[in-house]
Amino acid sequence: MTEVRVPTLGESVTEATVATWFKKPGDAVAVDEMLCELETDKVTVEVPSPVAGKLEEIVAAEGETVGVDALLANISEGDGGNKAAPKARESSENDAASSQAPRKSSDGGGQSVDVMVPTLGESVTEATVSTWFKKVGDTVAQDEMLCELETDKVSVEVPAPAAGTLTEILAEEGSTVEANGKLAVLSAGSGAAASASAQETAPAPAAASPSTGKDVEDAPSAKKAMAEAGISRDQVTGSGRDGRVMKEDVAKAIAAGTSAAASAPAAVTAPRAPSAADDASREERVRMTRLKQTMARRLKEAQNTAAILTTFNEVDMTEVMAIRNAYKADFEKKHGVRMGFMSFFTKACCHALKEIPEVNAEIDGTDVIYKNYVHMGVAAGTPTGLVVPVIKNADSMSFAEIEKAVNAMGKKARDGKLTMADMTGGTFTISNGGVYGSLMTAPILNPPQSGILGMAKIQDRAMVIGGEIVIRPMMYISLSYDHRIIDGKGAVTFLVRVKEMLEDPRRLLMDL
């Protein structure tokens, strides 16, 4: 008998409510098939089946509150939930490859080890194989990097699970693989010879149960995803029990809609004019990375869903620059990090967000969720595209802690080491286009957030102060906001508060 327990729910989250059971006692279940969904005050968590077999007992019914590691259900292991032919397994790690025919090691005695797609993060179900660092026949050490996968948000390196020889690559560069899919086969052991293995096509997933005609409650995460994407229930085909819509069904519907929208113009617009021979030889066609494709889709979805407006103001940076010049040497000596402008802007925004809480809120269907904390997203350009790492609980950080966090996230972004946890949960974002020389900027929202601050370059300009013309270092700042939740007064007040605190940084210290 295998126990199904409540997984880790996240930092500071200790309990959840059982929202929906997708299976009932007596149902056959497959490995990783969704059993139930839990709701916390922050996220929705899906609980997969750890083994194939039959659901014998549900311990925590729908609506019950459960703690971390609490018992949810019991499963009797067996072949009832496994559509593949039964076969011996040497370890539980091979369960994900149960649809593959058994492999026999070569006479060299090396044991075959599957290289699987690692966990990609919440709601990420597939990735693209971007680069193989090894080729078939190469000897590899344990934990040596074999390949790199690219998801919608981050790059994931796949290390060798054992030392040996790479005998087979199942997913070539450019191919798309699903979570827990098989990438390659290793022959474990020094100098192991390549093994010949017969591969079979994995059986297609079982078709969704036809609707019984009764009212079906869709998964809460699916409802939220449909509300965020602005699509209706009838645009999504449910694959859950009794035809209920799951979160992955919404993702498929969004992807299908994006593909249709992308292909529609080709049917009504004239084809691309042929290039002259000499021009064609100087052109280069490069496929967009998954990160670029996702960024383009999300930005367009934000424009289609939110009512985006932008308001502008300008900041006299004299006082901030004076403080920075006066204390930057001492600051770096004590804290080991340079004092930049981002800590001032982050602190100013955190103070303004407390006064105008709707800027730090989000729309969830017909509800507004107000965040009593600030997880600050900091947009950063990288060679592979725009990413927005998140500094958690920035409102409780000091100047030095913010600068250290910004530097650490920036380095991880440049090195391609950001994880899903680094990029999720943001409540507000700052985008600094000034580092590239932008004089004015109106950034697009980072959904489901309702506001984003744009910073521009600092430029000396002639200003009239006290009846005299003086030269001051000025910066244009902007707030792009969702007019569905933030009115004009709130947006303008927010930006004025940021301006006031930057022009008189003493207000930050006195919480004014």
Structure summarized in a few sentences:
This protein is an alpha+beta fold and about 500 residues long.
Characterise the protein shown here.
- This is Dihydrolipoyllysine-residue succinyltransferase component of 2-oxoglutarate dehydrogenase complex.
- Its EC number is 2.3.1.61.
- Residues 94-103 have a biased composition (Polar residues).
- Pathway: Amino-acid degradation; L-lysine degradation via saccharopine pathway; glutaryl-CoA from L-lysine: step 6/6.
- Keywords: Acyltransferase, Lipoyl, Transferase, Tricarboxylic acid cycle.
- The chain has 512 residues and is an alpha+beta fold.
- It folds into four domains: 1-83, Beta Barrel (OB fold (Dihydrolipoamide Acetyltransferase, E2P)); 100-191, Beta Barrel (OB fold (Dihydrolipoamide Acetyltransferase, E2P)); 231-264, Irregular (Dihydrolipoamide Transferase); 292-510, 2-Layer Sandwich (Chloramphenicol Acetyltransferase), CATH 3.30.559.10.
- The protein is built from nine helices and 26 strands.
- It has helices at residues 220-229, 247-268, 277-280, 290-305, 318-335, 342-355, 399-415, 488-503, 506-510; strands spanning 2-5, 15-21, 28-29, 34-39, 44-48, 53-58, 65-67, 71-77, 111-116, 126-132, 139-140, 145-150, 155-159, 164-169, 176-178, 182-188, 308-316, 361-364, 367-370, 376-378, 380-382, 385-387, 390-391, 428-432, 451-465, 468-482.
- The strands form seven sheets. It has a six-stranded mixed beta sheet with strand order 17-26-25-24-20-23.
- The longest helix is centred in the middle third of the chain and has 22 residues, at 247-268.
- The radius of gyration is 27 Å and the shape is globular.
- It starts with a strand and ends with a helix.
- Mean pLDDT is 77; it is low at 80-108, 190-214 and 261-270.
